[in-house]
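Milestone M4 deliverable, item 7.
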Amino acid sequence: MQNTPMDQRLLELQQAKVIEIVHQSARAGVQKILELALSAFYFADHVIQVVESANTLPRPIACQEGCYFCCCNQVELTTPEALFLGHYVEQHFADEEKKGLMSALRRSLDLQAGKHKVEMARIRPPCPLLQDRKCSAYPARPLVCRAMHTLDAEQCEEAFNNRDLTSPPYYAHRHEIYFSISQGLLAGCRAVGCQSAPLELSRALLDYFNQPRPVERWLQGEKVFKISRPPKN
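Output delivered:
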């Protein structure tokens, strides 16, 4: 969501919520991370509901179950979302499913090696969490995934098949809301002294499962995730 407009008020409200949860919540460890991520998801959904209740959408959103074209993009997420997603996989995936996911994550990183973001955008590799045209971790999907939608399913499919980087029609206010709240999560993490840089999904999930106690260590201010940096032009 580069060049997406940002609502400073939404950013500040989410930042304040992060600070409140980390410093004041009696919950510890995983429960605190669940609260951090869910606060952002619920806040974004609430703001969108308020906006769209007051302003009728001129065109319906065309996305349907089984439509997976937007799931073939690189996903950036915040540290609370990465920890939340890792915990979801840990709790809901069977052992064989976890093994399959780890292999898919490593393949994804191998494909990304040495490539620029634009190159990856044209390749359109499927998300490692995509299974049978559905997200296998849908309840825990990051804000950037929740923002994705189209008003023209045929144009979306055509752009995917042609590796066209032009965005099909969408509602800009939804991207702005999700992006602003995502930035609020990052700002809140910085304010409380926790690792806050945007993460790439495959790298982040592998990091989550390749070390002990990632949630507790992140809350203690340790650098839990490696930062994937694209090659310079």
